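This part of the workshop introduces the protein records we will be handling. An example says more than a description, so a record of this kind follows:
>
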Amino acid sequence: MARTAIATILMMGFGAPALAQNFTTADEVRPILDATKGSWVAVREYDGKDLLYFTHLLAWRCGLDQILYSLNGQPERAFNAEPCYEDEPQPNAIKVADKPPYLEFDLKSIDLVTVRLVFDDGAESMKSYERAEIMTP
């Protein structure tokens, strides 16, 4: 699904200038994240736990100031992503080996996930997901 959305963005003419950029600002990542809202997070049951994955957001974290999430209507919490490596050729690279791209919760405890992104320009985007929408095998 995310590949289809990105391909659509590229075909719409956004691709030519964007390909030369590193996707490190809100203006660069917002169109991709808006087009791929259905892929922001995923839930997987593993080893008797619910794992809430933020992998997609981590791949586009440059240009974001915050990744906030809420489970089942509870207060928001921040997901602390590793920094953007703006001075390197691959600023969105995931390097930190001791920080998994997911959080662990009790098995079947996630019913609703709400994600709010705060971009580096102060703009925000939000999406809520029922468990069935984001469950992976």
Summary: DSSP finds four helices and eight strands in the chain. The two ends are 16 Å apart (CA to CA).
